[in-house]
Amino acid sequence: MSLTTVDFDRGRVALAYSGDLDTTACIPYLKEHMGCSYVLAVAVDLGQGDELEPLRLKALASGADEAIVIDARHKLILDYGLPALQANAVYNGKYPLSSALARPVITDVVLQAAKDHHCGSVAHGSTGKGNDQIRFDLGIKLLDLDMQILAPAREWSFTRPETVDYIQSHGIHAHVSADKPWGVDLNLLGRNIEAGPIEDLDWVPTEEVWALTADPTTVDHEPDDITVDFHDGVPTGLDGVPLHPVDIFGHLNHVAGRHGIGRLDVIEDRIMGMKSRELYEAPAVTVLLTAHHELEQLALPRDVTSCKAQVDHLLAQYIYDGLWHSPLREHLSAFVKETQAGLNGSITLRLSRGTVTAIRRSSSVSLYNHKLVTYGAGCTFPTGASEGFIEITALAGREWRRARNEIAGPAKTPAIPASENPREPAAAASALGA
Fold first, then answer.
1. Residue 392 belongs to some domain of the structure
2. 21 appears as a binding residue in the annotation
3. Which end of the chain has the least Cβ crowding within 10 Å, N or C?
4. How far apart are CA 92 and CA 72, in angstroms?
């Protein structure tokens, strides 16, 4: 998408509105301190699960001139979640990028809303040290060459209590929970919990922190076996029943969540260089990542999976760093998409007490050949060729060793210098317990 702000009014701003404390405070702040004459609050539905009409009314009550809700659930899954799944995208070895993937979706939607409402500016409520300011700003800059970016929370010097006082002074109710003093970001890909007591590395998360997952240590129901069906590397059904990917994510969040699957407590490397502690719940993504990886191991050649693992790692880094709309991310994704062509099959997984394990695998393009691998009768592997394969594989290394041996000459045992004190070796041996 390419936008232009020619003839657009800089005083008209489209605000990415989540309804939290900071984005709510942005509405009066944009008008009072940043010269905005018109504020459009854009709430993006990514599967938060809440009724978003109250959110829209809250934005209007907070001073927005207009407030709209845009359903982007299909966009999140089809255009962002599935390409990330095909890339097995996990950051820092654990985080499945649920919030990081939502940010370019929000950017796309808000930019389009800005264009539709003739806004020359886009605003967000991200603070000056978080990841989201980078993701929003980079997304806007990479998609639109002219759009002005406003970030009130990066400009003001309010503490959290001062932010509460500010919005209350404008007659806006501050929904701040004293018993749950952490921030939450939720979409179909997962749930992120941060701040408050989570910043204390000695604090053990209590059950009220979690919402999508049961406590895996107390789950008492029987395991569930579930089969994920894939076509071209995309999940297309469960247990043989065709389903839209959005419905697959929703169903797996429920089924895997009741088994306590997808709880994560991680130390994360933020873009700005600091480390933070983050909690995540990603039941559906955890299951689908396991299934997709198993399918690739079954159906892709060894050299392809090895090369792809490097591309997958780089893609996860670019997604986390807010570079979804960069040229390299697009080229890397093109490679990943090519590897998924014809990647069809079914993976059966067992869900139990916080774990997900593949128990059955099948694919129309499976590279698993029982006649080649079996140690039983009927093996077709050409064992007589192995010795020659080993000889050729070792050839270059053996030649390297020969050349260096010729330069070095016969190996010599290094002499051990005699001690000047005859008593020293005995004393040293005694000290070592000899």
1. no
2. yes
3. C
4. 27
Residue 399 is assigned to a ligand binding site: no
Domain of residue 51, residue span: 9-176
- Verdict on whether the full-model pTM lies above 0.85: yes
Question: What CATH number does residue 221 fall under?
Answer: 3.90.1260.10
Residues of the chain with pLDDT under 70: 1-8, 176-179, 411-412, 414, 418-434
23 is in an annotated binding site: yes
Residue 248 within any structural domain of the chain: yes
Cα 138 → chain centroid: 17
Pair (222, 360) in one structural domain: yes
**Domain co-membership, 238 together with 164:** no
* Residue 434: per-residue pLDDT: 44
Is 80 known to sit in a ligand binding site?
Answer: no
Question: How far apart are alpha carbons 292 and 287 in whole angstroms?
Answer: 9
**Known binder of ligand: residue 127?**
yes
**Residue 16 among known ligand-binding residues:** yes
Whether 125 has a binding-site annotation, put simply, is yes
| 22 marked as binding residue | yes
Instruction: For residue 252, give the nearest of 228, 213, 210, 283 by alpha carbon.
Output: 283
Q: Give the position of tokens 């916080």.
A: 354
Is 348 contained in some domain?
A: yes
Give me the CATH number covering residue 93. Answer: 3.40.50.620
Q: Cα-Cα-Cα-Cα dihedral of 219, 223, 229, 232, to 10°?
A: 50
Residue 307 lies in a domain: no
Q: What is the pLDDT of residue 2?
A: 41
132 is an annotated ligand-binding site residue: yes
Annotated binding-site residue? 95: yes
Residue 377 burial by Cβ neighbours in a 10 Å radius (0-12, 13-18, 19+):
exposed
For residue 326, say whether it is annotated as part of any ligand binding site.
Answer: no
**Is 189 known to sit in a ligand binding site?**
no
Please give the tally of structural domains in the chain: 2
Predicted pLDDT at 408: 81
Amino acid at 271: I
